[in-house]
Amino acid sequence: MRSDPTALSAGMDASGAGNSTAAQSGGTVTVVTAAAVAGTTLTVGQGKQFATIAAAVAAAHSGDTILVDAGTYTNDFPGTINKNLTLTGVGGMAHMVATTAPPNGKAILDVGGSGVSVTIENFEFSGAAVADGNGAGIRYEGGNLTLRGDYFHNNQDGLLSASDPNGSITIDTSEFANNGAGDGFTHNLYVNDVGTLTVTNSYFTGR
Prior knowledge:
Elements: E1 20-25, E2 28-33, H1 34-38, E3 41-44, H2 53-59, E4 64-74, E5 85-97, E6 107-111, E7 117-121, E8 123-126, E9 136-140, E10 144-148, E11 151-153, E12 157-161, E13 164-172, E14 175-177, E15 189-190, E16 194-200, E17 203-205
Parallel strand pairs: 3-4, 4-5, 5-7, 5-8, 6-9, 7-10, 8-11, 9-12, 10-13, 11-14, 12-15, 13-16, 14-17
Antiparallel strand pairs: 1-2
């Protein structure tokens, strides 16, 4: 059977292994590996790829997963997370502590945007405070945010959200404790106009 040397069969790489997809158009062959589709795993911690969460977020691409060793990360403030990412604490909680005001004037993590999906698992947030009194563990900017196994405590706000009528916030197995000043203007959880808010198996206490 005659073969075309310029084309690769779908599902086969150059070695014949079934771990890539090839597409031919106008004589050009593009190969997309399974690893590229699934995203890359980055690691944070002592002796790992990155020493800080901020550095890992800056290096990550949409679809990546960031694994963060359990421990305390003080004043480790990433830029806005506006790409699809999963951040997971490993071996215990990754505790993000603010002892100074976050430079974005909003939160320890500023997350999301229209169409962006972010998952944060096994993280702890504390100490967020800014001049306008709305310092949050997480500020949600839109898109789809999933929180699982997280702990927010002693922030001016636990989670504070902007509006996104097409967005979603899902909170599972998480705790919000002693966020806010008890003045009715700061909150454990404050969600604006979002398409869907789902809270399951979670605990809210204190102020």
